[in-house]
Write a structure and sequence with these properties.
Mean pLDDT: 77
Structural class: alpha+beta
Low-confidence stretches: none
Distance between the termini: 41 Å
Shape: elongated
Number of strands: 2
Largest sheet: 2 strands, antiparallel
Strand order of the largest sheet: 1-2
Helix content: 10-25%
Order of helices and strands: EEH
Number of helices: 1
Strand content: 15-25%
Radius of gyration: 19 Å
Length: 73
């Protein structure tokens, strides 16, 4: 086992390691970087989701019909 790998525990009898170390997103700004411009209702959805993140809403659901651009929002 490598010295730089921290063993977090066991799963199914095997050692489980976190090779990425501790990751914290606390106090890091949320920023969208994209070469695409939002279309349709995407701009409003992006603003609503971003506002929720700023208010501390960690879990949000974006609902829409198939093909409405949810993935790129």
């Amino acid at each position: 086992m490598h010295d730089d790998i921290h063993v977090d525990g066991k799963w199914g009898g095997e050692a489980v390691s976190n090779i990425h170390g501790d990751v914290s997103y606390r106090n890091k700004p949320f920023r969208v970087v994209s070469e695409y411009e939002p279309s349709g209702d995407q701009a409003q959805a992006i603003e609503a989701l971003s506002s929720g993140l700023r208010q501390g809403d960690r879990f949000q659901t974006l609902k829409g019909v198939t093909g409405s651009g949810k993935t790129y929002t």
